[in-house]
Design brief:
Layout (H helix, E strand, L loop, with lengths): L9 H17 L1 H12 L3 H27 L2 E2 L10 E9 L2 E5 L7 H12 L3 E5 L5 H13 L7 E3 L6 H8 L4 E5 L2 H12 L4 E5 L4 E5 L5 H13 L9 E7 H15 L5 E2 L3 H16 L3 E2 L21 E2 L2 E4 L6 H4 L6 E7 L2 H10 L5 E5 L3 H7 L7 E4 L20 E2 L4 H6 L2 E9 L2 H5 L5 H14 L3
Parallel strand pairs: 3-4, 3-6, 4-5, 6-7, 8-9, 8-15, 9-14, 13-14, 15-16
Antiparallel strand pairs: 1-2, 2-18, 7-17, 10-12, 11-13
């Protein structure tokens, strides 16, 4: 059944987006404080990696939603459908559930909210149990910006609330951001009812440094991606596959950066301990901590320091064996395995040994080389000579394949995914009158004409 929110006009819904955007900007300090209390992220990082992309997404939606969601005429009518006109309308899906995540608590939930509500859906949010304060504030700002009461509701922010929500209510679409294991469980729950689903799951991607790359640029960009958000970014690189021709200057540049690293608070002690164990095992196989070694030097003195609670120092592990568990990338923290490769084929073998791809980076002096590689990398997003930052473009959609997710969010594809197309045709009845059975000879003539036309 249509709701009052779904029957509001698109301009009215976009006016809400603008009010929400202004409320976000006006409450930047409150949001930053809430994020810090939830996930230990500093104000500047919250501003640049959470709030700024959300504000840009609001602006993008205000400017582009009309063109995407307004009715349009469907062109390409064949000559034999003269007198028939078809228009495509975009209708909201209905009731959408969003099961939120914690690593970018304002950005990710905020963009999903804006797209679902701008499309005319009613939304139920299950906030992350790890981002209660920031996401509660975000939802309140959205409501206070002028949403009717039924348009946006929420559940308790507990781990169990997501399962209870899906078991107790029927939704037209479910959006989940989180681990592959939980995503699979949600998909299995919804499979019997054939409900629509968007899964934003984790990536374990590569940064590939080609033989003609600028090693200092590559090292700086990759190290920034390792450190941002404490390495807790699904599109962050888990391994750097560096061609032998630039390996030495790359490691030297990376080591200089790694030596300056300060410990970061991860989401919990288990995440920090997992990073530590993977680094330790890689070093036992001959790898080295870049912060205590230069190219060609022996292992740094002393054992690799364990985390202090959930504090862990961002770490680049150089000379990492391709068979090390760290190279597989099953961690969510500020660690990267640096693997020396002799050929592009070797880099692709290591890259494809991982089955989770969202955003792959390629560093090269000739961008056309990376563009030719793009179809071979299995990722939806390819960044050339950069990591992560370009993916914040509000018009760029995010989507995984296989173990990394299902469907697309953000950008034009994400907004359209919050709607369903309805095709309305208007006919003058010319075709119906022309379909009376003619004589066999006339049928033969028509057949020859049609086959001649469509043979060209």
């Amino acid at each position: 059944m249509p709701t009052p929110w779904s029957t509001t006009s698109l301009p009215e819904r976009l006016a809400w987006v603008a009010r929400f955007r202004r409320a976000l900007a006006a409450n930047e300090k409150r949001l930053a404080l809430a994020v810090k209390e939830d996930v230990s992220k500093g104000r500047f990082e919250t501003l640049t990696s959470d709030l700024l992309p959300l504000l840009a997404a609001c602006k993008w939606t205000e400017r582009n939603a009309r063109g995407l969601l307004s009715p349009r005429s469907v062109g390409g009518r064949p000559f034999w459908m003269r007198g028939i006109r078809v228009h495509e309308h975009r209708e909201p899906l209905g009731k959408v559930a969003i099961i939120a995540t914690w690593n970018y608590p304002v950005q990710l939930l905020g963009i999903q909210l804006v797209q679902a509500l701008a499309a005319g859906n009613t939304v139920v949010v299950k906030p992350s149990e790890r981002a209660v304060k920031s996401q509660t504030l975000l939802l309140q700002l959205a409501k206070d910006a002028g949403l009717p009461e039924e348009a946006l509701t929420s559940t308790p922010a507990t781990r169990e609330a997501g399962g209870t929500l899906l078991a107790g209510e029927r939704f037209d679409h479910v959006v989940f951001t989180g681990s592959t294991e939980v995503g699979k469980s949600i998909a299995a729950t919804l499979a019997t009812s054939l409900r629509h689903l968007t899964l934003e799951l984790s990536g374990r991607d590569s940064a590939i440094v080609l033989d003609d790359a600028d090693p200092k640029l590559a090292a700086a960009a990759i190290w920034a991606a390792v450190c941002i958000n404490g390495g807790q970014t699904c599109m962050g690189p888990r391994r750097a596959l560096v061609h032998a021709a630039v390996y030495k200057p790359f490691v030297e540049a990376l080591s200089a950066l790694a030596k300056k690293a300060q410990p970061r608070a991860l989401i919990d002690e288990a995440a920090a301990l997992n990073c530590y164990e993977l680094v330790k095992r890689a070093m036992e196989m001959g790898a080295r901590d870049a912060s205590g070694a230069t190219y060609g030097s022996p292992h740094p003195n002393g054992p690799f320091p364990p985390p202090v609670g959930k504090l862990f120092r961002p770490t680049a592990v150089i000379d990492c064996p391709r068979v090390a568990a760290l190279t597989e990338g099953r961690h969510f923290g500020p660690v990267i395995a640096v693997v020396r490769v002799e050929r592009m084929e070797e880099a692709l073998d290591i890259h494809h040994a991982c089955d989770q791809h969202l955003a792959t980076s390629v560093f090269t002096g000739v961008p056309s080389r990376a563009k030719r590689l793009a179809p071979l990398l299995a990722a939806t997003t390819i960044t050339i000579n950069d990591c992560i930052v370009p993916t914040a473009h509000p018009g760029v959609s995010i989507g995984g394949r296989g173990e990394s997710g299902l469907g697309l969010s953000r950008g034009a594809e994400g907004l359209l995914a919050m709607t369903r197309p309805v095709y309305i045709s208007v006919s003058k009845g010319l075709m119906r009158r022309s379909l009376k059975e003619p004589s066999a000879s006339v049928t033969g003539v028509v057949a020859r004409i049609l086959t001649w036309i469509y043979s060209w």
